[in-house]
Amino acid sequence: LDSGVAYGPMSNLIASVVQNKATMSKVSTLPTIKTRTKKLEEEERAKRQRRMDQQQRSSSSSSQQQKQGGGYFSSTTDNDGSAEG
After folding, report:
1. Which H, E and C letters describe the chain, residue by residue?
2. What is the model's pLDDT at position 51?
3. Residue range 16-37: average pLDDT?
4. Both ends of the chain: CA-CA distance in Å?
5. Average of pLDDT values for 26-51?
6. In a 10 Å sphere around its CB, with 0-12 CB exposed, 13-18 middle and 19+ buried, how is residue 12 labelled?
7. Which of 16, 35, 57, 73 could lock onto 22 through a cystine, CB 3.0 to 4.6 A?
8. Residue 48 has what pLDDT?
């Protein structure tokens, strides 16, 4: 199992593990810790704000669709398919 990280050796390794020919072993890793910097805090704050904005837009759009009668098409005849449209 000391082969490279190309497609062939990885495919063979996975196949041998699936067929119980090779055993998997846990690989211990050290946790990565991000230091608290102003830049990181600004990025996280921006991510939280975007997530909150998306949730508000999705909740407001779903409530508007329910008021219009649901679905993508409204019940009005703005465009009935004729040439006048």
Report:
1. CCCCCCHHHHHHHHHHHHCCCCCCCCCCCCCCCCCCCHHHHHHHHHHHHHHHHHHHHHHHHHHHHHHHCCCCCCCCCCCCCCCCC
2. 94
3. 81
4. 68
5. 87
6. middle
7. 16
8. 96
Rounded Cα distance, 17 and 10, in Å: 11
Asked if the model's pLDDT at residue 58 lies above 90, the reply is no
Q: Determine how many CB atoms are found less than 10 A away from the CB of residue 16.
A: 13
Residue holding tokens 């949730």?
A: 55
pTM above 0.90, yes or no: no
